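Dear U.,

For the methods section draft, I wanted the exact inputs and outputs in one place so we can describe them consistently. I've listed the two proteins in the order they'll appear in the manuscript figures. Please don't edit the token lines directly; just add comments below if something needs changing.

First protein:
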Amino acid sequence: MRILGIDPGIAIVGFGFIDKQGSRLVPVQYGSIQTEAHTDPALRLKSIYEATLQLIDKYKPDAMSIEKLFFNRNVTTALTVGQARGVLMLAAVQRGLEIAEYTPLQVKQAIVGYGKAEKRQVQEMVKMFLHLSAVPKPDDVADALAVAICHAHSSTLHQKINEVTKR
């Protein structure tokens, strides 16, 4: 199973493709989509949408996992990140992908085992899980890979639950 993990944003969208091969997680490609500040927001969203479609078409994931928006004190930031999530999810739906959403707490719990883990702890675990030589930069990329790993672990758990309930 190939999973696309997304850390949404308007300036930087982190993405990471991983393959789940049995119990192994293999990094395929990761990076960021960046938009220029002081550009019309609609054009930034269009750029994110088109870049996401290109990535999906190139790497052909089976599912997309995306971080849920948590309430932000800065309403303007929350709205623009919400708009970015919308175009990212639209791209996934248009390409027929299953979409899974995870809160930052769920991601930290899946990666570190503790929902209030520090960002650095999550990044180090991403590096370890994927056997990377360094923590991916910018932070949004490591966050996207963490969301993908969270989905890989979650889908394994759902599979095991289904197997037990069928007995």
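Second protein (the one for the lower panel):
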Amino acid sequence: MIRALLIWVLLATPVLALDPSELLQDPVLEDRAREISKGLRCPVCQNESIDESNATVAQDLRALVRERLLAGDSNTEVVDFVVDRYGEYVLLNPQTTGANLALWLAGPAMLLLGAGVAGVYIRRRDAQPKEQAGVLSKEEAARLSKILDD
């Protein structure tokens, strides 16, 4: 019972973020606003969309999105306006162009570089002559014999 209540509360938190006074009268515009809001990151809340966030700046951004839609902007124009104002950080799915492309490619490149370094290290380690454990050279055997005789 408690587990079900906890799951319900956790799943219902995004519903609590949106104030009923923010809703648009036109259901089509409201659906567009909700869709846009799900793709925009709250600048205050780490990795949370403005649709889910209770922060004041998220409320302001939701209002801005709705204002732009009422002004007749397309979804792309609304997102571009918000990005121009707040930077690409507000996009939950950043674009893979320009400087972001280097960031997208850095992870896989570092993984490949690390795998290459590990492969070279293992090959060099295996190519080195192995010392035989427990077998003494003639000099070591003579020295050991001398020590044991004393």
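Candidate sentences for the figure legend, describing the second protein: Residues 18 and 128 are 66 Å apart (CA to CA). Residues 96-128 form one domain.

Thanks,
Y.
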